[in-house]
Amino acid sequence: MYTYNDTDRRLVAERVAQYRDQTRRYLAGELNEDQFRPLRLHNGLYFQRHNPMLRIAIPYGQVSAPQMRLLARITRAYDRGVGHFSTRHNFQLNWVRVDQVPDILAELARLDMHAIQSSGSCIRVVTTDPLAGVAPDQIADPRPWAEIFRQWSTLHPEFVALPRKFKVAFAGGPDDAASVRTHDLGFELVRDDHGRLGFRVWAGGGLGRTPILGQVVRDFLPWRDLLTYAEALLRVYNLNGRRDNAFKSRIKILVQSVGIEAMRRLVESEWRHLRDGIQTLTDAEVERIAAHFAPPDYELLPRLDSRFEFSRRFDKEFAAWVRTNTHAHRQPGYAAVTLSLKAPGRAPGDATAGQLDSVADLAERFAFGELRTAQTQNLILPDVRKRDLYNLWQEAKKAGLATPNVSLLTDIVSCPGGDFCALANARSLPLAAAVQARFADRAVLADIGEVRLNISGCVNACGHHHVGAIGILGVDKNGEERYQITLGGATGQQAAIGSIIGPSLPAAEVPAAVERIVEHYRSCRRPKERFIDTIRRIGAKSFASAAYARDFPNFENEREAANG
Amino acid sequence: MAKTLIKGDSVVANEWKVLRLAEGESPEAAKLPFGNVLVPLAVWRARKWDLVRRHWDQGHLLGIWLGPKDDPAQLAADLAHFSAIGVHFPLAGDGRGYSIATLLRTRYGYTGELRAIGAVGRDYLHFLRRVGFDAFEVNDPESAIDSLDDFSDAYQTAADGRLPWFRRAGAPALAA
Ligand code: HEM
Ligand code: SF4
Fold first, then answer.
1. Is A431 helix (H, G, I), strand (E, B) or coil?
2. Cα A320 from Cα A489, distance rounded (Å)
3. Assigned CATH class of A6-110
4. Taking CB atoms and an 8 Å limit, are B156 and A156 in contact across chains?
5. Which end of chain B, N or C, is surrounded by fewer C-beta atoms within 10 Å?
6. Is A460 in the pocket of ligand 2 (CB under 6 A)?
């Protein structure tokens, strides 16, 4: 993991002092709401339905056991004892007090944490594949690059007031587990024909009310040029992105309006001036950063562990958990483990302070004290000996962190919706709970297999419904809370935006509709065919009559209402 | 006159006026105020030689200001005429001025006074200085000036010429 040096610490401390003074001036009436808004947003503080929400940054999802304990402490002391992991690695507290935020930030700073650029119209917290560095087939570890980018983008003076938020992701290849295609800017590690390392650069992706997948702006960018190229692209966006309409100000709209070819030319011509400049990366710098991400002291172990194989054979419940919640690892004898935050009836991504402490303990006991946060709102222990999995599982079960449903239908991603968010049309969380209750039978769930189900409470798409194999979107229809279903969305190399299959439904009918969709899949699938692949083969529309148990010849105007 | 402003590291009297065209006012007809004046790009374009002559004849300093849509490339050949260039921020959230300033300093080699005008709050001073501004029209400059030093260091280069942190002597050696 990256460890802070004096400069890193000093910058964070100075940001805390700056924000403390900004808060003081706001509370003293020297700054009005409009003046304070961008200042607090640059520090992750949203004013939502009941209470301010603080979004704490976890850059590229890496967090240590002591940091996790600190989050637990803060959750107890300043919130109501429950924190929330978002879809972009971050940690959110829903019940903080404006006047206490500077104190929270000061506490975070003690362990090198902060809320810098976790919201607002700036370069946001950078994200990556949660299995970075341990997945067996990665082209290269994306974390050093994400850290280099974090440093460059932190407090970058030219990009403090972009047209809109700007989200950046790094993928280690080849699967795009970081979903670079749904980001404003994405860097996918690749090797060129000569084996040299660089990036395929994607731009113009984003969800929200106009979901668009990114396109390639540069097929191969040598690694040295990462920052000069990023600067060129951001300058083009800063000067040319629309500012007259917040709904049209993301870079995706700029790319759509000028076209990818013109965008490419604009960036290249700006880059000509910056290329080989002082911000060009050096071998020494990359080695310095990469050294922080050196593998831990792995034991040399055989690929198979007899104790593990034995337990798996004789404990069916353990075996089920292993199937869903553990992942292949590049180091023989090790596995990566997902600690599920999707227990039935719990808000997806929520963790109690007690669970945060347990997670820290588990990381220290079993995984070199390291943790990751995943885009699917779960936590990951990246390096666990197979030999330890059985003990780990028993401990995780006690802490309510071993729901064996990773990647299954009940591993739901959801935004907080109407229970917290002022923009919501609908309450996503009770719906998530209802769907989970409907699919409580583990055998059925296992038979259905991999299904990504994502829920957003409104068109802003914080719950990524567009890229769920099943996406559920809360819409407001003449004051009534309803849900629209999309099918066929995906992230990764085969990323796709789902298509709407029919008219919206009241909340009470949604779980049954999901069940009918899934039944239709079970009756049409080929052997071993995943849900998403069946949709790709037979088309989303062919699920419509199953979903509604009746026919709708004409539902096209529904999209207008939803995107309004 | 004498609205104060921050110049460099101190608070000084403001020796400049800003000419703004009213809705529909033609650049040809606009009346220039007495003294040093920052004119809009349109007035410079329409009355370049008048303005240069005014400077020569009357000794008033000549300046220009750019709005967020103005492309500094259009001024590249004229920069030597100006004693000051203003960059206007219509809203604190409109950050085009940061790139405009960067380009003036790093691409077109402008070395005269670069002044941030409009919605310029103290919380942005540190960043404004880093992209090349050296004069700031702010409310309450006496207390705002402290914010120039909100941060004592930076990771990245900018128009202020600071080396990226990783290229500076004193950056820690490689971990062994
Ligand atoms: C106070 C609560 C929240 C508010 C007001 C809010 C607001 C918004 C808005 C307005 C957008 C659309 C931006 C655009 O289209 O340009 C958005 C997108 C998004 N939000 Fe939130 N959000 C909230 C909470 C959350 C939470 C809890 C999460 C994580 C679970 C989250 C993650 C995201 C993501 C990933 C996107 C999509 C990014 C994209 O367009 O590519 N947000 N949010
Ligand atoms: S999708 Fe809508 S309802 Fe859900 S958190 Fe985002 S803004 Fe709020």
1. helix
2. 26
3. alpha beta
4. yes
5. C
6. yes
Distance from CA of A393 to the nearest CA of B (A): 36
Which tens digit of pLDDT belongs to each residue from A444-500?
Answer: 999 999 999 999 999 999 999 999 999 999 999 888 899 999 999 999 999 999 999
Q: Is residue B172 part of a domain?
A: no
Which residue's CA is the closest to the ligand 1 atom numbered 30? A86
Indicate whether this model's pTM tops 0.90: yes
Strand A185-191 to strand A168-171: parallel, antiparallel, or no bridges (unpaired)?
parallel
Radius of gyration of chain B (CA): 18
Range in A43-57, A280-294, A309-323, B147-161 the model is least confident about: A43-57
The protein residue with its alpha carbon nearest to ligand 2, atom 6, reads: A462
Ligand 2 centroid – CA A456 distance (Å): 6
Task: Give CATH 3.30.413.10 domain extents, chain A.
Answer: 134-291, 413-563
Can you list the pairs that A241-247 forms with residues at least 24 positions away whose Cβ atoms lie under 8 Å?
A241/A162, A241/A163, A241/A164, A242/A163, A243/A163, A243/B68, A243/B94, A243/B96, A246/A164, A247/A209, A247/A210
Contact A113, A68 (CB under 8 A): no
**Chain B nearest CA to A275, separation (Å):** 13
Q: What is the CATH number of domain A134-291?
A: 3.30.413.10
Specify the domain boundaries for CATH 3.90.480.20 within chain A: 6-110, 306-398
| Pairwise CB contact (< 8 Å): B166 & A5 | no
Residues of chain B contacting A160 with CB distance shorter than 8 Å: 95, 98, 124, 127
In chain A, residues with a C-beta closer than 8 Å to the C-beta of B149 are none
Residue B123 sits in a domain whose CATH number is 3.20.20.70
| Mean pLDDT rounded to a whole number for chain A | 95
- Count of Cβ atoms closer than 10 Å to residue B172 Cβ: 10
- Residue numbers of the domain that contains B114: 4-167
Q: b/e map of A358-386 (b: 16 or more CB within 10 Å)?
A: bbbebbbebbbbbbbbbbbbbbbbbbbbb
Can you identify the CATH homologous superfamily of domain A413-563? Sulfite Reductase Hemoprotein, domain 1 (3.30.413.10)
What are A4's two structure tokens? Answer: 């802070």
Please judge whether B156 and A151 are an interchain contact, meaning their C-beta atoms are less than 8 angstroms apart.
yes
How many domains are there within chain B? 1
A235 touches chain B (CB under 8 A): yes
